[in-house]
Design a protein that fits this description.
230 residues, mainly alpha, two-stranded antiparallel ribbon, 2 strands
């Protein structure tokens, strides 16, 4: 398993950019508190956004806004079609395709397991998934980790960087009213309930949360359309 994971991750390349800050990946999660006032470390935002706030209260408000944006983005990403694709898009028994890894991260975020969500977004972003990079940008911004947020913002493709802020404004105004195409709301809720219990850290010394061996089969079973009665 380890050799397969190492081989897959070695092929996951980010866009050309300076090396990430040491605490962007592979370190213990930072304390979830508001940062101290620092005039040189304002909240980084997408192009076209207002200037970064300077006061502590404004920074906390910016962190809350980023957290709300991330949750709205994840709620939109976890549609019926997305969870169906997750069940059928695995490279191995435990490793999904990059798009599936992004959806898996969003499911874990909605289940309040942010550390596991961050791992899968990093995996997807490393394979070129721009939305996963934007999820990481919002994730770090919500924690007040502005340097890491800025780095991941730089990894977001220009097209996604331009479109996502507008999409998020729409999502905030119009909350998802249903699961979207694919299985019904009950199937999506079943996936949301199943996934957190099925993803585990495989080693106490290694941040590697992997799903159960039968994960893809269980997802397919949960999202299978009910057979019509004759």
């Amino acid at each position: 398993m380890a050799s397969t994971i190492d081989e897959l991750l070695s092929r996951a390349l980010l866009r050309d950019a300076p090396p990430p800050p040491a605490d962007v990946a592979g370190t213990a999660p930072a304390a979830r508190t508001a940062p101290a006032d620092d005039p040189d470390d304002g909240a980084h935002r997408p192009a076209g956004s207002p200037p970064a706030p300077a006061g502590a209260a404004e920074r906390r408000a910016a962190m809350r806004a980023a957290a709300h944006d991330l949750r709205a983005l994840c709620e939109a990403a976890v549609s019926g079609a997305a969870v169906t694709a997750l069940g059928g898009g695995f490279l191995t028994q435990s490793l999904p395709q990059p798009g599936g890894a992004r959806v898996l991260g969003c499911i874990l975020l909605l289940a309040d397991t942010e550390d596991s969500a961050r791992f899968w977004w990093q995996y997807a972003a490393g394979a070129g998934d721009a939305i996963a990079s934007y999820c990481l940008y919002l994730h770090h911004l919500a924690l007040g980790e502005n340097r890491q947020a800025s780095w991941w913002h730089g990894q977001t493709a220009p097209a996604a960087e331009a479109a996502l802020p507008t999409a998020l404004r729409v999502l905030r105004a119009l909350r998802p009213g249903g699961p979207g195409p694919g299985p019904g709301r009950a199937a999506v809720d079943a996936v949301l309930e199943y996934v957190p219990a099925a993803v585990h850290y495989v080693d106490d010394d290694l941040e590697l949360p992997l799903p159960d061996p039968d994960f893809s089969e269980r997802i397919r079973a949960l999202t299978a359309a009910p057979r019509r009665r004759p």
